[in-house]
User: Which sequence fits this backbone?
């Protein structure tokens, strides 16, 4: 405890904690993806991992006690996520109308996910020069990460990508999962599954 | 009588500009519309029915002085003053988007639905696989295009030297590179060394004098027979 | 009151209301945009406009009482929206996944909103040549629409823009609302409210 904190009165401390809880809640709400303790600490403006862990766990409890549609969960690796409880997903899914990405960048992402880790030059070869823009967008959205420079620049998907689509963080497992789903998707070539945009 | 004498019309503004010669140097020439003033002057004179050649001469002299100043300013590449700016429109402050979470409609199925199509274009341009995953590449020093084109540079510099001096005559290096940027001067010096090595020119410098002298000693035709590195 | 509802005991009714509240909350959370009573009714599984209005207003109150980072607001035209309270925007903006607009395009947007319908040439005159890029970006995000060609190209904001900011779809009312917003933004010239980007 710092000297500054020692000098704070009980109500002051409580107020500070309430503010930090609100900040963490804000971060989890806006991110819509699991955040690790480091990121949460950045949002809460605290350097103590212990305190941040406590804040996050308090939020998990608070949401449990509220007993409503939204929950905050702790995931593997001390990561925390705000999400809709599974019971409600089916009933409100139809309200989600905006795709994450438009068709072009989605194709580029799909290709990267399937072939990763992949050379940037190969992605450009297959997807064309316009996909430089896609890569920038996908990187901004933290769906892919790039390593290396020039001709030896490698691309792979991020843990956020895995979380978003409910895939494993382990690359090999993820690719196996993708292959299995890909086969399943390919089989029923109905109007609806082939044209999700139309279905909206 | 002289007190009651009316001032000639051309001493009134705006025509007075042309008749106050001592002030001509102080005015901004771009602010004077000479054609307008001269037309006004002639019309007024015509109306009054009195042709005053002395006044006409002064108007002509002043006009030409103003024209001369405009020309000088233009030659100095001085821009005429910009047209007066219009009042800028009110630009409201940016309104920041409220942050809302939004569940995206994209599912893993959507992601993989488009994969098939992408893989088709892959088959058109087969990937260069297997590509080994290599460590970060070593830094390759950039090759200066200038050095790659050394033969061309030698040829053109040799031709330039021939134009400047005849065989056997002296040319100061400082004269050759006069007005060039430092990097260009250095490049020229390098080419001179190559030419000297090929025996096309002679380079010499006297003690205590910084100047380097060049003599053209080779044949005037750059035959390219000795283009191999020496 | 239907026969079915008359037969329900008090605890049963309360449970039903709690479930409906959770469904509305789920809907607002997932949609990320204002929902009208009809859509909310669809989610809550109720046909009574009166009941749905009460449910939504209850949620607004519940969120007010929670005093945290998220709020549910009632907008013009009996529409409801869940969003982050403005106080927290600056601190968590960087966590938002969706590509957000930086100050430049937002200025162009606010100018268009304020002067619409406006000639594209006028926008470029006032905002500079670089704003061609802004217009493309704003159009991609469906915040503005362009009509006509060449020198007679008109720009206005879209209904999506109005919804995003909780503004009226009626142009005159919207402009009045915007004037109030601009006044509010200009008054408290603190670092955070004026430069939320900087606060990150």
Assistant:
């Amino acid at each position: 405890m710092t000297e500054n904190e020692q000098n704070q009165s009980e109500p002051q401390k409580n107020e500070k904690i309430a503010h930090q809880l609100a900040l963490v809640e804000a971060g989890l709400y806006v991110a819509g993806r699991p955040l690790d303790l480091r990121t949460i600490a950045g949002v809460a403006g605290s350097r103590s991992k212990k305190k941040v862990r406590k804040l996050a766990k308090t939020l998990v409890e608070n949401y449990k006690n509220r007993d409503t549609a939204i929950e905050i969960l702790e995931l593997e690796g001390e990561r925390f996520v705000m999400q809709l409880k599974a019971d409600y997903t089916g009933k409100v899914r139809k309200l989600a109308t905006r795709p994450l990405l438009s068709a072009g960048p989605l194709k580029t992402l799909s290709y990267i996910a399937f072939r990763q880790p992949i050379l940037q030059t190969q992605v450009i070869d297959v997807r064309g020069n316009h996909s430089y823009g896609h890569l920038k967008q996908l990187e901004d959205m933290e769906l892919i990460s790039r390593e290396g420079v020039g001709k030896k620049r490698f691309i792979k998907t991020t843990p956020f990508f895995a979380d978003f689509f409910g895939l494993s963080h382990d690359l090999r497992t993820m690719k196996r999962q993708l292959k299995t789903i890909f086969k399943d998707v390919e089989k029923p070539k109905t109007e609806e599954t082939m044209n999700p945009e139309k279905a909206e | 009588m002289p007190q009651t004498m009316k001032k000639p019309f051309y001493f009134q503004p705006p025509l007075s500009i042309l008749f106050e010669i001592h002030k001509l140097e102080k005015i901004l020439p771009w602010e004077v519309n000479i054609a307008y003033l001269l037309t006004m002057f002639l019309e007024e004179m015509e109306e009054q029915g009195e042709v005053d050649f002395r006044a006409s001469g002064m108007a002509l002299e002043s006009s030409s002085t103003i024209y001369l100043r405009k020309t000088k300013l233009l030659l100095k590449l001085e821009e005429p003053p910009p047209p007066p700016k219009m009042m800028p429109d009110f630009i409201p402050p940016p309104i920041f988007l409220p942050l809302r979470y939004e569940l995206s409609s994209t599912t893993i199925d959507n992601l993989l639905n488009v994969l098939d199509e992408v893989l088709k274009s892959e088959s058109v341009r087969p990937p260069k696989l297997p590509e080994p995953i290599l460590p970060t590449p070593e830094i390759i020093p950039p090759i200066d295009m200038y050095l790659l084109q050394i033969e061309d540079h030698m040829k053109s510099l040799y031709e330039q030297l021939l134009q400047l001096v005849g065989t056997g005559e002296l040319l100061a290096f400082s004269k050759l590179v006069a007005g060039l940027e430092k990097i260009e001067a250095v490049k020229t010096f390098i080419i001179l060394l190559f030419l000297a090595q090929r025996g096309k020119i002679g380079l010499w410098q006297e003690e205590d004098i910084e100047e380097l002298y060049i003599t053209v000693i080779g044949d005037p035709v750059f035959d390219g027979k000795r283009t191999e590195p020496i």
Summary: The CA atoms of residues 32 and 230 of chain B lie 69 Å apart. The longest strand of chain B covers residues 201-204. Confidence is low (pLDDT under 50) at residues 220-230 of chain B.
